[in-house]
Amino acid sequence: MKLKEGNHFTDKSHNCATQIICTANLLSFKMEEALQPTSLSLQQYTVLSILGKYKNELNVNILRSKLLDRQPNISRLLNKLSEKGLINKKRCTTDQRIVYIALSEKGKEMQLKAAKLIAQIVFPISDEKMEILHEILSEIRSTN
Description:
The chain is mostly helical and 144 residues long. It has helices at 12-35, 42-52, 60-66, 74-83, 105-119, 127-142; strands spanning 58-59, 87-91, 99-103.
């Protein structure tokens, strides 16, 4: 995505940051579009994807720490997924403040269906460039 010619940045870092933000917005839009047949929001899909990587239940606080968005209202998000029958919630028997979350069978099916839809988003760059981009973005995130 190219920015209009009239835009001037104070330095290359500012220009790159702007390009990253524009690209993230574009990808979010494409992912939301791809998820429409599932009736999942991008945030709901992200939670299902994180839970899908774990065989066992996950503590809500650990789940929150893994979310890129750092949503303050994770309870509402999890309640919506529970209402849809996509997750199971269980309170810890020794500490009622702790809640464990796991994908239900329906949630596992939905996560796989949604992942297939997301995988259909085409990136117009080579695998080699995609690997380089992945390394650069990982480096940026690790320094912050």
